[in-house]
Amino acid sequence: SYDAKREDFGAQDATKLDMWVFDNVKDFFHRARNNQSLFSKINEEKIVFFLHLLGIDTNGHAHRPSSRDYKDNIKKVDDGVKEIVSMFNHFYGNDGKTTFIFTSDHGMTDWGSHGAGHPSETLTPLVTWGAGIKYPQRVLAQQFDDAFLKEWRLENWKRLDVNQGILPVDYLNNTDLFKAESMFTNAVQILEQFKVKMTQKKEVTLPFLFTPFKLLSDSKQFNILRKARSYIKHRKFDKVVSLCKELIHLALKGLSYYHTYDRFFLGVNVVIGFVGWISYASLLIIKSHSNLIKGVSKEVKKPSHLLPCSFVAIGILVAFFLLIQACPWTYYVYGLLPVPIWYAVLREFQVIQDLVASVLTYPLSHFVGYLLAFTLGIEVLVLSFFYRYMLTAGLTAFAAWPFLTRLWTRAKVTSLSWTFFSLLLAVFPLMPVVGRKPDISLVMGAGLLVLLLSLCVVTSLMKRKDGFIKEELLVHLLQVLSTVLSMYVVYSTQSSLLRKQGLPLMNQIISWATLASSLVVPLLSSPVLFQRLFSILLSLMSTYLLLSTGYEALFPLVLSCLMFVWINIEQETLQQSGVCCKQKLTSIQFSYNIDITQFRQLYLDDIRRAFFLVFFLVTAFFGTGNIASINSFDLASVYCFLTVFSPFVMGALMMWKILIPFVLVMCAFEAVQLTTQLSSKSLFLIVLVISDIMALHFFFLVKDYGSWLDIGTRHFTGPDCRSTAWRCRRHLTKMKLKAMVSDERGQSSK
């Protein structure tokens, strides 16, 4: 195998990876002719030759499947395969004992990615010929749900799709007896897996609780196997194949049944735990951080020993139940965790009574209205994980918010700014996923906007009476220079890669230096709230520009503008409600020593603030792509840092790119917390409740089959959700060639 450094997305020509394979195979057989020991080994029976051709994959990622590089690579691979087949046949004297299988492991989208569920990614070609394989069969017509046959002009040739795990007997050129016996063996193999899984589960389950898989009872297994043997004996081979396929289907369903046997039990425990935790967090908010039940409380009753004793007994019973069934330790976590949680909830029974009494004093219409608004907000958040345009709907509603309140009359400029930036940010979820249409001019445009904004802000601050001190001005100039260098590196790297000259070393050094400095330089800026936030934006934007390939470079800039307006508009809402006076952002400082006596209690409007935070966090993650699958992100994003394939480094860089908007939102939220005189604990408890309600939604939406993207967007919050499906994946770019030597009966050795 070649060195990993050869897989360079910025190299002159990735086709050399495939030519390296072909050249080494030729050299291998040439040496075999002059080496008796090697010659004897490769003339033994059941030898597998495996050729992994990675060049097409590399060219597909680097240049897209529609590029000239990709098509030229295909032509060279076609020629190479033809030459290798001819060489094999010649070496073995055209003895007809070699089977060739040409296939791949997955496909590729038009924009050079894979991992989602589109047919271009999940269907794989399977072309076989040689020993033990049927010749192509002509047909007049055949029905399939796709149009691939017409696209490939193969309508008149029989297509045989294959499901992984089931022997494709229709491919085999052998006797009907051999096919029937092979299919029978295949069925028995899978049935044995089913039996082992059933035995394992039966041994650790109490007899009166065990429910067997009814569709494949012992008697049915016996009858099917007996019938199959009888059909073989009476030479009814078609019926044998059909019966064995039915048995395989039932055995696979049974395997899935026993694999997920404990799902209901574990699911109930998870739901109970989630509901208990949400209840406890809510009671903690009401009891310690709000005035909702003040004045309602009655006399404090002495705690009863019955409650703790009852929960201790419940815990012991659950642990004993799990112990006698020899359950793994994770089951104890799921089973026992709800016990202390619900004990903590019921200990606050007095708070629950006071809460009910307080809620009953509110007008029913107000209570129902608030509940519906909260429910609608949660559902929009949940749906945004599946449909990005729901973020657009939410941001559009945010844009109208000031006009539905008295904010418009008090702060017209702030309200208009909020509406403008909300609508501007709402455009991004409607854009194509990042990576499909790279456009460096948009990255350059985003850099110019950052420089223009920097100029305006620095000029404004210098006009103030107290002005900048030299150190602060130096920090800002350093950050502006970093932005300029980032723009240069992006443009220079793009030009170099187009000329196939690779990543310039100086560009690579500047990129890594910019990334490192972006984590340190903001700490050198002034602790004044506005200046610190602006310094964080400049530092993170210089890194984000290096990781951008198109319109997403504008996203953090627009998001930051909206965050700045959010800080201002929250001050206006507090002043409007009379909770506290408005403070100038230039007078507030990030401080380590905060006087907790200045913190106020929570009001109903603080739930909206916490909801805004969750919504902006979701927007930060999904605004330009889908974090659930790496398919949504383009490897070209990291080409300013490295082009040689390194999955962990590339993955870490792409993850940092995803987290940068998240960091901007969290910094803005910290500023909101400071300016509204709220403790972080109280706001984060509300965020925790909202997040747990969303997680409970996702638990019921768990999907454990399909593509990475299908599974990822269903969020594995539930237990025992490992995939039980057998899938065959496709890759028209990573093509593999397997040559197999058949045994004396002409059977293909797999």
TrEMBL record:
Its main location: endoplasmic reticulum. The keyword Endoplasmic reticulum applies. Residues 253-707 form the GPI ethanolamine phosphate transferase 1 C-terminal domain. Pfam families: Phosphodiest (PF01663), PigN (PF04987). The chain crosses the membrane at residues 264-286, 306-323, 329-346, 355-374, 386-404, 416-434, 440-461, 503-524, 553-569, 610-630, 658-676, 682-702. It is found in: Endoplasmic reticulum membrane. Keywords: Endoplasmic reticulum, GPI-anchor biosynthesis, Membrane, Transferase, Transmembrane, Transmembrane helix. It is a multi-pass membrane protein. One of its GO terms (biological process) is GPI anchor biosynthetic process. Belongs to the PIGG/PIGN/PIGO family. PIGN subfamily. This is GPI ethanolamine phosphate transferase 1. It comes from Pongo abelii. The lineage of its organism: Eukaryota, Metazoa, Chordata, Craniata, Vertebrata.
